[in-house]
Write a structure and sequence with these properties.
Two copies of one chain form a homodimer. The two termini of chain A are 33 Å apart. In chain A, strand 4, helix 3 and strand 5 form a beta-alpha-beta unit. Chain A contains ten helices and 13 strands. Chain A folds into two domains: 137 residues, PurM-like, N-terminal domain (60s Ribosomal Protein L30, Chain: A); 154 residues, Alpha-Beta Complex (Phosphoribosyl-aminoimidazole Synthetase, Chain A, domain 2). In chain A, helix 2 packs parallel to helix 3 and helix 4 packs across helix 5. The first copy, chain A, is globular and about 65 Å long. The first copy, chain A, has a seven-stranded mixed β-sheet. In chain A, strands 3-6-4-5 form a four-stranded mixed β-sheet. By secondary structure, chain A is α+β, with helices and mostly antiparallel strands. In chain A, 35% of the residues lie in helices and 25% in strands. The interface between A and B is large, with 75 and 76 residues. Strand 3 of chain A pairs antiparallel with strand 2 of chain B.
């Protein structure tokens, strides 16, 4: 919107807009002077720099409704956008949500989708202050978030001598998807539950991002796989980032190792190529490493992402993560 | 993005991201500390309140490629979002663009689309500082703009005794679309040219919006038709807005009257129901009316939008504008 645009005759957008508004109009939020219902939202002049991101999740490209509830779809779309703020060390200020709804999408479905978005927004302490509702061929959610920071963390600040740190887990979300693809979700073990939660309800590591901003030299969120995103950070920073098999193996969770064995996959492959756990990769001086960050590699002079096997041989870090490619 | 997310194997997103970045990376813009290429854009702490909007244009719902060049599609999608800032009396600060591109969309097509967006952004003196590129079934453009203001203009401030003002033209864009639908674009008269330009290259009335902010009590942009948007303003303001046939007839352009006659349509109907000229409707005290605003009605105690015919009878202002409904 801040205004959703009813276009009579197309579908019941008036109802969609009412539902959308009702879900997000939860009283005044800090700094929000005007929320849903006008041509635009109005926010009080913020303290500090603005950090601003937009992320789109499109049905058939980023998700399938077969494996996710609509509330999950709303939740993870919001968290995916919030994760970009986490990677910048920013604190969320507010969000707008632009939805494209396919023909036949019901009010009840919209309520469930929006409830997932609202739950994610609450978890991020971030008000959804407006948006847009439009008709389209498939469901899509485009979320834009504003945050503030005094000290933005970029992906270009890694320097030789830095350690490479992992914050959060990698590979579990990909394991969750693999379980769903194989119909192997019956066993309600702790591993299975954790993997399904990682896939359906990922969490942007906002608190960790804020703390990294004070000590790290660079950060990026892992949305497309550790290998690919680490390579991007290396490229942006103009140095070589070496991920070490020995170090990475030590930080993989027992659950991931168990699940990978059951799936006939390599835990390391899931960790390197699986995305959408929304872990953070950061670099910084060894003595500055926070307790919640684990060392998984190092930064050297050179270029690109590099993979150092336990036997000492190295290879180029190649990306590759393709959930729903058709 | 600020980062577009290449997902190898899906389509050549890497090329899309490069093109997208190249089009918008035109050197530093005022207040932009970090543009395209990181997880998010960073803007210097702005002066004044923030005004924030998002607008989506989806192929098959809001536009068809048969009647618009890709540069036109990019241009008008940007202007549609900017128009929300105009209605709030805000000055654009920066924009993010989230694109969904269908399979087979080429680099050349993306370059043309982005060129239209870039031209619109230049016209609005507003940098595009990031965005997102994703694969989807149809082309869609979701544009989010931030602006600043010290004095936001809302749609809820109209009060009895106000005049209703029109800024800009209404109906020409709808006439342009009607000409295209009927294949009547051969006659390169001034009327035809103006209508096609209104449809393909609408302009957000940002300068007028800024000036209105100092004198008007309320404003809204006409994206869905004068009748519907005036009714929305009446509802938000809790008063009755009366559009007067006699006053409105006097401000219709000669071109609109000519075209309507040729199309066998009523000029008033085009003016009342045609959207996407992105005119502004505002209200204010008679003595405060700026020279660029024309009086088309009045505000009274009561509720809703009302249409007062030249013969004195009144009717409810009913909306209705449905470009591409299928």
């Amino acid at each position: 919107m801040s205004r959703a645009r009813p276009r009579p005759g197309r579908f019941d957008e008036a109802e969609a807009v009412r539902l959308f508004s009702r879900t997000f109009e939860r009283g005044p939020a800090r700094g929000v002077e005007l929320g849903i219902g006008d041509d635009a939202a109005v926010l009080a002049a913020p303290d500090g720099r603005l950090v601003w991101t937009v992320d789109a999740q499109v049905e058939g490209t980023h998700f399938e409704r077969a494996w996710l509830g609509l509330d999950d779809i709303g939740f993870r779309a919001f968290q995916a956008a919030a994760s970009d703020l986490a990677a910048m060390g920013a604190k969320p200020l507010a969000a707008l949500s632009a939805l494209t709804l396919p023909r036949g999408f019901t009010g009840a479905e919209l309520a469930r989708l929006s409830a997932g978005q609202a739950a994610a927004a609450r978890a991020c302490r971030c008000a959804i202050v407006g948006g847009n509702v439009a008709r389209g061929p498939v469901l899509s959610l485009t979320t834009t978030l504003l945050g503030t920071t005094n000290q933005p963390l970029t992906r270009s600040g890694a320097r030789p001598g830095d350690e490479v740190w992992l914050v959060g887990e990698v590979g579990l979300s990909a394991a969750g998807l693999a379980l769903l693809e194989k119909g192997r979700t019956g066993a309600r073990t702790r591993s299975t539950r954790r993997a399904l939660t990682a896939f359906r309800r990922p969490r942007a590591l906002l608190a960790e991002g804020l703390r990294l901003a004070a000590v790290a030299h660079a950060a990026i969120d892992v949305s497309d796989g550790l290998a690919l995103d680490t390579s991007r950070m290396a490229e942006a920073s103009g140095c070589r980032l070496v991920l070490e098999e020995e170090a990475l193996s030590q930080v993989l969770s027992a659950e991931l190792v168990t699940l990978a064995a059951g799936l006939g996959r390599s835990a390391l492959e899931l960790a390197l190529t699986g995305g959408e756990d929304f872990a953070l990769v950061a670099t910084g001086a060894p003595r500055q490493r926070p307790r919640f960050a684990r060392r998984i590699g190092r930064c050297e002079r050179g270029r690109g992402g590099s993979w150092e096997r336990a036997d000492g041989r190295t290879a180029r870090l190649a990306g590759g993560f393709d959930h729903f490619a058709r």
